[in-house]
Amino acid sequence: MHSSNFTIPARNIRSSRLMRPDLFLAAIRAARWLARKINERRNLNALMELSDEQLKDIGLSRGQTESDVHVYSRY
User: Fold this and answer.
1) Which of 9, 19, 33, 62 lies 20 to 30 Å (CA to CA) from residue 26?
2) What count of other Cβ atoms lies within 10 Å of the Cβ of residue 24?
C-alpha cells in the first residue's frame, strides 16, 4: 500500500467571502429584513396592549392598529 501525498487545501473563510460577495450581501440583507420584521412585530404588540383611550390620546383607533396600512413605530 502506497501512501499518497495528496493533501486537501485548507479553506480560507476570507477568500471564500471574496469569491462569493453576492452570498455574503444576501445574508446581510436577510438579517436586516428579519430585524425589521421583529421590530415591526414588537411595535404592533405594544400597540395591542394599549387601551382604546390610550390609542385615542395618540390619534389612533383600534381598527388602524389592526390594519397593515397604518404603520406606527416608536423610537
Assistant:
1) 9
2) 13
Residue holding cell 416608536?
74
Cβ atoms of 25 and 12 within 8 Å: the answer is no
Number of neighbouring beta carbons within 10 Å of residue 47 = 19
SS3 category, 72: coil
Q: Cell for 58?
A: 395618540
Per-residue pLDDT of the chain (75 residues; tens, 9 = 90+): 555 566 665 565 555 555 678 899 999 999 999 999 999 899 888 988 999 999 999 888 888 877 755 555 554
* Residue 46, all three cell numbers: 405594544
Residue 4, C-alpha cell as written in the block: 499518497
pTM over 0.90: no
